[in-house]
Amino acid sequence: GPQSFWYSPTGCRAMESSPWLTRDALYDEDFPWTVVDGRVYAIGEFIPLHPGGALIGRAVGEDASELFHTHHTSELAARVLARYEIGRLREASGQGACC
User: Model's pTM, two decimal places?
Assistant: First the structure.
């Protein structure tokens, strides 16, 4: 589960900088995850709490950046999402998806 990716149950990252994760490694895991702006989030605990209901299901296993920014314009949504961050996405080329 997400524990293998340095995930903290309190939502705080255990490391000062987020670990780099690859899509291949994520596809091998058995927990719901999503990517927004190059950051990876373990969202399993949040899915039943999502105010938008089942719409969050479209984000699982996908880059949900456009979906997230289309439906979330407040800073509150970004702060809630940040609690579930487990790392940054490393693209296949070896480069990070974001700075």
Answer: 0.75
